[in-house]
Amino acid sequence: xxxxxxxxxxxxxxxxxxxxxxxxxxxxxxxxxxxxxxxxxxxxxxxxxxxxxxxxxxxxxxxxxxxxxxxxxxxxxxxxxxxxxxxxxxxxxxxxxxxxxxxxxxxxxxxxxxxxxxxxxxxxxxxxxxxxxxxxxxxxxxxxxxxxxxxxxxxxxxxxxxxxxxxxxxxxxxxxxx
Length: 178
Description:
The protein contains seven helices and two strands, in the order ααααββααα. The protein is mostly helical and 178 residues long. It has one domain. It has a two-stranded antiparallel sheet with strand order 1-2. Strand 1 and strand 2 (108-112) form a beta hairpin. Helix 3 packs across helix 6. The radius of gyration is 21 Å and the shape is flat.
């Protein structure tokens, strides 16, 4: 019998049976296992945070005001873009991504690198849409746990979004000779 239990016929058969439903998902390799691990990490973090809030005596609000939803939405957009695209935050993404070139104003384009979990994290980190869920969940947890501080964070990033929009509009107007 082989000392390496991972190569036994029983283990090989189990691995093949577990992979079978995913075999024809895509012609290109997709790191479905690492995606599942990231999803599990997300839900464990959110659930653990909810339990910690409950243990601390923080209860969920009966309702969330439309203004808070708008503030959270704009702040989530900006924080997600800053994490996924900003030049200055590239140090966060660098272990998982490869620089491709300049992007939008103050932004860079990158692609995921490596394989497995490293690649999956790289895909998450270069996608502001993907990060949006993580940021929104963090913002929501903050809204329950520390609403005043979270609104301040929301204010800062919403003001920054408005400022960035005005900067882009101003530059476009300059380029048109206005």
